[in-house]
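Q&A log
Question type: sequence-to-structure
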Amino acid sequence: MKNRWLETAVVYGLKNTLCTSEKQFVRTAKKLTKGKAPQTEWVKPTGGGARVHFFDDKQGSTVCVVCVNGKGRSVAEIAALLAHEAVHIKQETLLTMGEDKPSDEFEAYIVQNVTQNLMSEYARQKKLRWV
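Response status: OK
Response body:
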């Protein structure tokens, strides 16, 4: 399944995408690194089953590639993993913006928006309907 780039419409956000397989991650990483194989694993074998990778695009902007291994995981576990990675994207977004004292509501909106986009993309790729 081909991944697509997701919008972060709440705020000027970082370009991000979701990879649900190692093959998909390698293909995406090679596009972002001019054909070089990624220097890191898509998810850590001993980790929680998800990870966000940060790359710089041709314009020097940060690009986030979220990877999740949903094999054997419940819908609730996958949602929690995606929310966790959304927090890392929020952290990088605030760092990129130079925002060191955001309001609680602003942070929550970023996490909500990124999580919703990641969950929708996961459902699209896996042909799921969230209940």
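Response note: The radius of gyration is 14 Å.
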